[in-house]
Amino acid sequence: MLSSLVFLVGALVIASQVFRFLEFLWFYLLKPSSVQKYLHGPAPYAIVTGASDGIGKAVAHELFAKGFNLIIHGRNEDKVRKVVDELKTRRSGDVRYFIADAAKGGHDFTQLIKPFADLNVTLVVQNVGGAYMAKERIDDSSDTALVELVAWNDFFPLLLTRALLPKLRTTAQHGPVLVQFVGSHAATAAPPTLSVYAATKGFLAVLTRGLDNDERRWGTPSGVEFEYLAVASVATAGNPQNVTMSAPSAEQFGRALVNKAGCGKRYYTPWMAHAIMVWAVGLLPEGVVDGFVAQMMRKQHEERQKKA
Description:
Helix content is about 50%, strand content about 10%. The chain is an alpha/beta fold. The chain has one domain: Rossmann fold (3-Layer(aba) Sandwich), CATH 3.40.50.720. The protein has a seven-stranded parallel sheet with strand order 3-2-1-4-5-6-7, with helices on both faces. Strand 1 (about 45-50), helix 2 and strand 2 (about 70-75) form a beta-alpha-beta unit.
């Protein structure tokens, strides 16, 4: 009897792992893109924050190529206008923009989005955010620097989403609407010198689940959905490194992000190699992971110091 029970439990564990492996292959290698379902209604628009460079710029280019009109955000108007000009050389769609320094408080978000109030926004990519790569511990950082870091990564996307939601709910009466928060695997790894940044991304992960539950399960479902994208290393101007399988270019990552939009998962990793890395790290004891991450951060700081 005991041997049969052990055999049954073992068979169930193996079957579960086989199913997860097949699901992984389907999700990253075979599943068709779902982003086209947000191309509905008159002149669909996507909003991309933090779009003047890096991942945000790459996502904007990819969405524009897919047929979306765009509303892009950045803090430097010259850089944003350059992105607008680049996009308009590709096709004749509409590209608009707004300027705001996400690290600074005091924004009137209702006024920021007022020029776009009548547009058919079906997709929002909250990409704005980042980290200051410094060697300091938290007590070596000023109050201003810490508040700006939280505002940059959390307050700006939170308050912008709040301002957009009434209109997004109206749009969702006619077709699906998606809001994505670009997060980071730092939220689970919590690297040294990036503790506050990691915490801001953890906030976005919990916010995503809560907002999605608000719109799906509290009162009448609105049709607005939320996704959290767990991102590892991407080679950008703000994160200079060689492009590899584990550190794709912004263009490669932007393509993966757009292709996975609306995939049916609320929390996922768009880039397959990142997902494999996270799975492998999950097999290790926490202390081993912490030591590995600390060593990786030392190497990054050393490389940045050499290039400075």
